[in-house]
Structure formats: structure tokens, C-alpha cells
Amino acid sequence: MGQGAINPAAAGVIPWWRNRRLIPWLVQGVAGLALLVLVAFLVGNLVRNLTSAGLLLSWSWLGNPAGFDVSETLLPFNAGLPYWRALAAGLVNTVRVVLAGLVGATVLGTLVGVASFSSNGLLRRLARVYVELIRNIPLLLQLVFWYFVVFLALPGGREAIQLPGMVLAKSGLFLIRPELVNGVWQAPLRLTVEFGALLTGLVTYTAAFIAEVVRGGVASVSKGQWEAARSLGFSPLQTLRRIVLPQALRVIVPGLNSQYISLAKNSSLAVACGYTDLYSVAETTLNQTGRAVEVVLILLAAYLVIDLLISALMNGLNQLVQIRER
Fold it and tell me: What is the pTM of this model?
């Protein structure tokens, strides 16, 4: 080496293959490129197969009259409206049961999880039996049980279950001043047995998993917190509400995220209860139009958006409940 040459190692210059900052970026770039190549191959293969079968991707059929009715929906719909309106009605039904299920499962799961720490031995055992029983029975079987064995077996007419402000009958749940007219119950707000069976099944099933998440979060709080609260004269309920649960949230929230997403995906089993959700409408649309690829893409996009929204909200909540050290 001549006098004017500079040794890279002596000058402090690190070769690119030993640069710990550069290598991760290179690895990610290569992995991303490989993923793009794979996606391009799959899309190209799909287009070639569709072309050979004479079924190029088309979305014009979304404007054609659907020709079928949606049994229940918050979005007005009739058979003369286009397919996109039918899919929108199904999506509204899916979002409706998912939102109600998230609230119900959270409340029930929290109560069962907290009951695992009750001083009452019977209540603790009942909570454990509920969790172990519900978690080990497939959700599909539970939905069939709730629909055919429970809700369809309800009495009707004057023999219906009548409570203050509500009536539970074979024709549905009637709320806000229900009255019997010519042997048929009527009310300003009616929930069908299909919706009730699906919601009950999703809530009881998901709540069993949420109960375990809550139990793990509460168990992560040291016993010293309980003892300190007891020495200050706090009741067990006050200790849970003011001291234990606020600290346990940093462990509970990440676990809730996965359970909420599972509930949203499990709502597609609504077909077992006869509830007209997005999946049910999409299945009917596919049978009538034969546009399998387009319908599946719509389903994938819809459930992906729902799950991503749940995940984004829960990630934001997770940042709020994390303990920040000073």
C-alpha cells in the first residue's frame, strides 16, 4: 500500500456488510421486494386464469337489481335495489352485532374475571366452571344451541315471557311499551330471535376468553396493593375499582385487542342462526351472479377494515393506559 492510500479500518470507515444500521434496512428491502414479486405472480396467475375462463374482473354487476330481500336491516332495502345496497345492508347488520357483542362480552367477561378473586368460594368455582365449559365447546355448536334449543323454544302470544317494559317471545324481543294485538306482539323496538341468538352466543363465548384476560391482568397486580388498600379501609369493590383495575389495564388491554378481533371474525357464523349479515348476503350474491372473485374480495376488504379499525382503537387505548415513568 502506498503512502497516499488510506486503510478504511484505520480511518474508522465500516464496510457496508458490517454496518449494523444498514443491514436491517437491506434485509427489509429484500424481503419487501420478494413479497412484491410473489404478489405480482399471484395476481398475474389470477388474471391469466380468469382470462382463459372468460371471467375478467368486473364491478358493473353491483348496479343490477338484487332480486332478493334482506330479512332485517337498519338500512332500508327491497329486492328492486342493486347488489351494492344489499351488501351495504349486510355490512350494517354485521357492524351492529359486532358493536353490541363487544359491549356485552366486555361487561360479562369483566364480571366473570373479577369473580375469580371473590372471597365467596361458590362464586369463584362458578366462574371457573363457566370459563372452562364455554371455552372448550365450539362456537358453532353454541350458536346452534342458542337458536334452536333456547330462542325457537320460547312461547308466543299471551304465554310469552313478560317483564316490565319488555316481552321475550318466539317472534323476538319487544322493547318500549310492547302490546299484544290480535295475538301478535308489537312494539316500537323489536329484536329478532336470529339476532338475539347470534348476539347471545358471541357474548357468552367471547366473555369466557375475556374473563381469562381480566383474571391475568388482576393477578399481575402485586398483593401489596390489596393489603395497602385494606389498611386504608377500602372495601374489596373500592380496591378493585380505584387501585387494582387501573393498574391491571396495561396488561388487560393488549389481550382484549385479540379477543375483539376474534369476535368480529366469528360474527361471520351468523348463517347458523339465520341472521342476515354481510357474509350471508355475499353468499346469496355469489350464487346469483357467479362473481366469486369479486365477492370474496369485497368480503376480505370489509372484514379487514373492521379488524384494522378495532386494532387501531385498541392500540390507542393501550398507549393511554400504559404507566409512564417519570
Answer: 0.83
